[in-house]
Amino acid sequence: MDECRNLKDPERILSCSKMSEGARHFLHSLIADWGIIADLGYCDLQLAVKDGEGGFICAAQVRPATAPSCFPEDVVGQKFPPSLSPFLSQALGLKCPLCPVNPQFKTLSAVSANWEGEAAGVVLQRSYPAPHTGRYEQMGINAAWKLFSMIPFGQFPYKVPVNTQRHNAHVPDGFVILNEMSLVTDASPNAISCFKRLGFGGALIGRNLAEVVGTLTRPKSVGKDMAALLSGESPLDAVLTINNISVSLRSLPMWSERDYCGSVVLCREITEIRRRDNELKIKEATISEINHRIKNNLQSVASLLALQIRDSGNEEVKKALQTAKRRVQAISILHDALSQSKNEMIDFDFALPKLLKTNVDIMREGDQRISISYQGSFGLLAPSDATPLALILSELVTNAVEHGFVGEKEGEITIDARRKGRTLSIRILDNGVGLKEMPEEGGSLGMNIVQTFVKVDFQGSIFWSPGPEGGTEVRIELNLNGAVEAI
Questions:
Q1: pTM of the entire predicted model
Q2: I need a surface site. Which of 146, 207, 211, 282 has the fewest CB within 10 A?
């Protein structure tokens, strides 16, 4: 465990401890949700685990969002003072919270974090001595202590998955305290405001939240899960919407050992957030529809060109139309890859094979078998780079199939991409008959397209040469312009 001393990541600290996988998972769940205790109790929490040398190391910490922290500095990965070790060792085996006698740790208490009988660690609670605590602050402190006391019994964090909402309610957003009869005993000002926004104008104290919600809507419309949440008897979360006002709710039942003794219900008004989410969904649907129409339009253009090809009796015209159709299909495939991407970057290694296979299928003669192999990686490319690069490779591969394998039954094309940040080096090698003359500027339209994109769009260079074992080799050096990730 000594090797964990300088670590700052709770995941790595817990991974190198000698606890079971189940206990480790339990501690991860605890530190994912213990911020509620810190906020309710205006206290700092620290997780202490054994370091293998008779001492303890801090595996995680959380500061309150509702009060000043006792530990503004990060103590994760640091050993606790030796004077605290006897106290931590004693707390590790107890089922009830322990408060030390030593005046040095006056505002400190601790509980054992147990997983199915295994004492995995100790949770310490520290807070500033408060000269005056009001009713609002005291109700939060009392609730935090009950949740804190549930940790040794494995009752907190909850075993069922909670906190599934995208915009979760937190303690500063508002909270309601329920007693064992599911009646409201206290409510924070923000929680009262949430229910007023829903339309309830009376006093919450002494009321049942399910009945309160029933007065605002049809009682039968309050489902079983929502009723269980509002009663506080089950750890649940949901969104309550009444009169176009949305409130995110989460219930945290409290037990005294095995007896239910009330709950905390967190509240957060999220009407404006939901409205913005709906606007984003509408925009996403609109963009998806536009992309779909663009794709259909490109396919329609390719189909019209195919009809022109069939109706034309001139071989030169057919060839020109076939080339135009291929270029339209290349843009269509690339647009499809971009529209399906979840971010602004294109996974070029995924999109390229489909594009080039289409080109080979169009240009090969009869039963010719021409394969393409890939080495290296292009990585993620911005659309401003992906589109011209796709057309460059499309033209070069088409040129290789059309001129390099004339009369050949089979052939192979290798594309090798080497990426370093914004620099991209590409090597295209075929085992065909080779070129009698290397392309020059002012040649065919396809080669002019390639050279223009390489030099103008990428400020790069391109070279043709005979392949080392026959065929043709093309080397391209490019400077990518869009935001990229280094490989």
A1: 0.65
A2: 282
